Amino acid sequence: MINKLDALIHKEKPIAPWVFFFLILPTGISVGFASVTLPFVLAKHGFAIATIASITAIGISANLWRFLWAPLADTTLSLKKWYLIGTTICALALAVFIFIPLDVHSAGILIPIAFFSQIAATFVMSPSSAYLAKNVVVEQKGRAAGWFQAGNLGGMGLGGGAGIWMAENWSYQGAIIVLAIACIACIMILKLVPEGTHQKEKKFSDQFKAIAVDLRDMLKSPLALFIILVIILPIGSGAASNIWSSIASEWKVNGDTVALVTGTLSGLVSVLGCIVGGWITDKLSKWWNYFGSGIFMALVTLIMMVMHFTPAVYIGGILFYAFATGMVYAGFTGLLLFAIGKKGLASTKYSLLSSIGNIPVVYMTAIEGWMHDKHGTKSMLLTESIAGIFFVLICLLLLKKLNIKQQAA
Q1: What is the dihedral of CA 15, 289, 242, 264, to 10 degrees?
Q2: Closest CA relative to residue 243, chosen from 327, 366, 360, 122
Q3: Which residue in 53, 263, 347, 406 has the fewest CB atoms around it within 10 Å?
């Protein structure tokens, strides 16, 4: 049953699942620029792949720390105001890249700028995830999670692919300006969400005590602890997405094709994967979707490894990979929503678990970049495949042994 607090929230104004596509879009655009457009541009300016992978990995590692400032969305201002602030900062952080020279000596400057831009993106994620946890009816949680990740991955396609196309056919600086404006445009979706106020009558210190109690209660759950274990493992991390654009030349793919495939097409296909994954989560099982799509992703990279490096293999492989990524991300969000429940400080709990869940993206991006430079692309792809399949099997064995499948389904 939905508790009284949730009933009041839903009565105030429930949010339709599709709205989350636009709420989270600025985060996706920012991540897409940092993980797709920037690596592609840096590769063309002579940066080593390992250096590019390190810049990307450190940039996206900002997601590991967003739980530190996520309580602000739960304890100060309103969710709507925090979304407005976060989206504005996200756009401004993108604009900073305009002023950074694109030469190998700028690596030391690009690292902190990339990190800051991804911190900015998390200020959009926090209020959006709080709305997701508290303002969606239970029967639509999976679909809302799917649309949420569809906006995230679709934004990555826009920030990545469209960014590359504009950088190639227009200008790098112009691409950044357009992407920043697209982020600001998402503010219009605020007309369709409630204010999302916190309990202002409580003292600030009391609210942070409530955060500690809420997190402690969540971490007492064996199921929540198992979910934390699952999400820190390299299952469906999607790390290769951060490297595709910088190694495209090995498949003899030109810049326009890279922009189309890693951007527009990957964005559309990943959105479809998110919607399918959300449907599977609602209709079948969270575990069926998460582990099944993790295996699917591992098989895609395995097949790409054994085939000849041709443009057709690059295009087909990336699109199947994008579909699998969408399914995994929808399943990931479904698991987190299940673990945090509907009570308490949703933004903080979601941000904590989501931060933990980004650990494999960071370390797998760094590992795959290192494997590429030391042993080649085939070894890089094989590493991701073996890691994904192995740890899915381990988790399935643990799931059976712990006998929590029924309560988690």
Answers
A1: -60
A2: 366
A3: 406
187 DSSP 8-state letter = G
197 within some domain: no
Question: Using CA atoms in the order 293, 320, 160, 355, what is the torsion angle rounded to 10 degrees?
Answer: 10
Q: Per the structure block, which two tokens stand in for 172?
A: 């790098």
Distance between CA 108 and CA 408 in Å, rounded? 45
Count the domains in the chain: 1
Residue 5 resides in a domain:
no
Compute how many other C-beta atoms are within 10 angstroms of the C-beta atom of residue 103.
11
Which tens digit of pLDDT belongs to each residue from 247-285? Answer: 888 998 887 888 788 777 887 898 899 888 888 877 777
Residue 269 within a domain: yes
Instruction: State the residue range of the domain holding 259.
Output: 10-191+206-408
In-domain check, residue 1:
no
Residue with structure tokens 């293999």? 313
Residue matched to tokens 């099982």: 285
The Cα 15–Cα 148 span in angstroms is 12
